[in-house]
C-alpha cells in the first residue's frame, strides 16, 4: 500500500513542502531515499521504539520511504513523526483519509513523546501558503505556529494522541493565539531603563541620536565607566517593533532554534552580544547547511560588540558588506541563502591596552605608540562605517551618590519616535529606507544639503581631522538626524557642530 504524508524543510528563513511517500511491499528491507542525512536515516530505530510503546510495530516487509523532491537534502530528526504516521497508515493501523490535509512534523523520543523542533514559524507560513487545513506538531511548538492565522494548529504530547486524532478516536485541543494582543502586551517589556544611569548625559544624548537615525555607535572609555550598561539600555529607547518586523525577527530566531519555550513571538528588539572569541561563520552565518549568524539574529535590533579590538581582524572585516547592504548572502556549492541583517552596531572598547588613556583619575601606563597600535586593530574602512564615536568617562562620586533618577527610557523614546515619524514621511516612496542611516547617495544629496556656512565648517573639519568621503557622508547623516530631533527642516550650523564632535577617533590628537 502506498501512502503520502507531508512535512517541511527549512532553507534560509523559508520552508519548502516535503512529500513523504511510504510503500509497504512483499520482501524484507527498510530504505529511506530522497537525499536523507544520518539523522533521518536513524529515524527507523526511534520510530520502532516509539510506536512499540503503544502496541504497534513496523511491518516485517519491504518498507520504502521516499522524500520528495528527491534532489533536495533532508536534514534533522523533525521528520520522525511524518515518517511514522506514513508507516502506520501504509500498514493499515491508521486511516489515511485526512493525511493530505495536514503538515505533520515532530521528533520522536523512544517512549513515544514528541520533542520540539526548529523553524516552526516558517513551516506554518508555508503550510498556509500551500492551503493545508492545519499542522500537527509537538505541543511545545504549538503557540509559535498559531501565530499564523487561517491555519488549524494541533499540539500533541505523544504519537498516540496523533494516531487517535487521525483515526477519529480522540481529540487534540486546537491551539489559539491572539497575535495582536500578545504583541501589544509584550511590546514594552524591557529589562533595563535609562533612568538607572546617573550622569553620562553626553553619552545618553549620543545614543538618543543613534536610536533616532539608526546610526552605528562606538563607545570608548576606561574599565568601569559604564559602556556596557549604556549599550544594554539602547533597545529600550528604540522605536517599538511593528508587527511585520516582529514576525520577521521571530522567523529568524525560529530557524536558528533560539526561541524560548515560553515565547511565541519576539515583540521587543533583539540585543545580541557575542563573545570576542566568535568565528566569522558564527557571526555572519554559514556552515554546510547555512544557518543564520549573530548579525541576522540581531536583525531589527542591536548587535553589541564589547572589547572590539579583541575580536579577530578577519571576523570584524566580514561585517563591512552586511553593514552596507543590510543583508548577507551565504553561497555554497549546492545552494545560496539570503539572511536579513538590518542591525544597529554598537561597539565598546578601552582606549588603550591598560585601559586608562585620557582617564582623568588614572595614569596610562602604556608604552609610547601603544595606544595608536591598539586602535589600529580596527581597520579604517570598518571605523568609517561607524557614524558616532563617543568618549565615556567615569562618573564622579558626587553624581553617583545622588538619589535622583535619570530621565526614563519612555521619555527619550517618545522623542526618538517623533524623529522616526519625520523620517518615515520623508522616505515614504523609497522601499527599504526607513531612517537616515539607510539613505543612499541619491537621497543623501536630496535631504542633506547645507548652506555656505555649513560648507565652510565641513571643509575645515575635513582638513583638520583628515576625514574620508564616507566619514563626510556619515557626519551629514547624523546632522540630519539631530535636525529631525529638533523638528528642523534644515541642517543648521549647530547640528553640524554636534555631529562633528561625534568623530572622536578621527582627531589627530587621539592616541598620539
Write the layout of secondary structure elements.
Layout: E1 2-11, E2 14-25, E3 29-33, H1 38-41, H2 43-52, E4 62-68, H3 80-90, E5 102-104, E6 107-108, E7 114-115, H4 120-129, E8 134-138, H5 142-145, E9 152-156, H6 159-167, H7 179-186, H8 201-213, E10 217-220, H9 227-232, H10 243-256, E11 271-272, H11 280-284, E12 285-286, E13 291-292, H12 294-297, E14 302-305, H13 313-317, H14 320-325, E15 327-331, E16 336-340, E17 344-349, H15 370-375, H16 380-384, E18 388-391, H17 397-400, H18 409-426, H19 441-447, H20 452-465, H21 469-485, H22 493-501
Parallel strand pairs: 3-4, 5-8, 8-9, 10-17, 10-18, 11-14, 14-17
Antiparallel strand pairs: 1-2, 2-4, 6-7, 12-13, 15-16
The CATH superfamily of the largest domain bears the name: P-loop containing nucleotide triphosphate hydrolases
Q: What is the level-2 CATH architecture name of the largest domain?
A: 3-Layer(aba) Sandwich
Largest sheet: 5 strands, parallel
**Count of DSSP H/I helices:** 22
Terminal residue distance? 80 Å
Domains, number: 2
Structural Rg: 28 Å
Identify the overall geometry: elongated
Strand order of the largest sheet: 11-14-17-10-18
Helicity level: 25-40%
Low-pLDDT runs: none
Would you give the CATH topology of the largest domain? Rossmann fold
Instruction: Please state roughly what percent of the residues sit in beta strands, choosing from under 5%, 5-15%, 15-25%, 25-35%, 35-45% or over 45%.
Output: 15-25%
Please, what is the average pLDDT?
A: 89
